[in-house]
Amino acid sequence: MSEEIIRLHYDINDEDFSAAGEASSGVKKTLSALGVSPETVKKVAIAMYEAEINAVIHADGGEADIEITPEEIKVVISDRGPGIPDMEKAMEPGYSTATETVRELGFGAGMGLPNMKRYTDEMYIDTKLGEGTTVTLIVKI
Amino acid sequence: MLKVREIVKILDAEILAGEDQLDMEIYSGCGADLMSDVMAFVKESVILCTGLVNPQVVRTAEMMDIKVICFVRGKVPGDAILELAKEKGITILSTKHPLFITCGMLYSAGIQGRGVWD
Question: What is the mean pLDDT of residues B56-60?
Fold first, then answer.
C-alpha cells in the first residue's frame, strides 16, 4: 500500500432504503483492492454499514468521508438529523428509538451503536439536538 | 460441515441464485430476522437463514462475507434482490420450512459451528 492518504467521499441519501449500504459496499471494495486484510475489511464494512443505516433511518441521510492511511482507516459519517438525546441509553444493547417500519425492515434492534463500538478501535460521537450527529469510526490496520 | 448442495437437499430448497457455489463448505449458521443481530457475531463460512426479505439482507451478507442466504417459510425474493445477490456472488436458496425447523434441520445434519463475540 502506498504511503499517501487515500480519501473517499460518498453522499448517503434517504430516499431509497434499498440503496442504503452502497457507500459501505464501495469502501469494502476499495479496501479489498488495496490489499487490506479480510478481517480488517469486514470490521470497517460492518461498522460503517451500521452507521450508514442509522443516517438513513434516523436522519435525512448524510455524508461519509473516509481516510485510508497505512496505519488506520477512518470513517466519518455525518447527518443533519435530530441528534441523540441520551447517549448513555443509546449505547445500551437493545435500546432503540427506531419506528415499527424500520424494525420491519430488519433494523432498530438497538445493536447499531454497540456493533460500531465492537468492531472499531476508536469511536467518537459528536451530537447536537436538532442539528445532527457525526460518528467517527477508526480501525487500525 | 455441510456442502451447499447437501443443504439444498436437506431443506428441499430451491436455488434462486448462485448455482456455481454448490460445492462450498458451510461450517456455521445464523437464524435471525434482525440484521443488526446477525452483525453482532463474527463467523466464518456461514449460512444466513431468515424470514426477512429485502435488499438489506443481501447487503448485510455482503458486509459479513456471508456467501449463502436461505429464505424460509416459502418466501421468494424479487428480481432486484436476486440481481444484487448475483452481483455480490451470494447464493440464494428458498425453503418452505419455517425458521426454527430450518435451523434445527441444519444443526442436526452437522452445522454446529458457533459464532464468537469479538
Answer: 95
Q: Please tell me the distance in Å from B80's CA to the nearest CA on chain A.
A: 9
Residues in chain B with CB shorter than 8 Å from the CB of A113 are: none
User: ipTM of this predicted complex?
Assistant: 0.87
Domain boundaries, chain A: 6-140
A91 touching B (Cβ < 8 Å): no
- Fold exhibited by the domain A6-140: Heat Shock Protein 90 (3.30.565)
B80 shares contact with chain A (CB less than 8 Å)? yes
Buried b (16+ CB within 10 A) or exposed e, A38-58: eebbbbbbbbbbbbbbbbbbb
Architecture of the B2-109 domain: 3-Layer(aba) Sandwich (3.40)
Measured in degrees and rounded to the nearest 5, phi and psi for residue A60 equal -95, 50
Cβ-proximal residues to A104 (8 Å cutoff; 6+ apart), any chain: none
Q: Nearest residue on chain A to B36, judged by CA atoms?
A: A111
The residue written with cell numbers 480519501 in the block is: A7
The per-residue pLDDT for range B38-50, each reduced to its tens digit, is 998 878 889 999 9
Chain A residues whose beta carbon lies within 8 Å of the beta carbon of residue B54: 17-18, 105-106
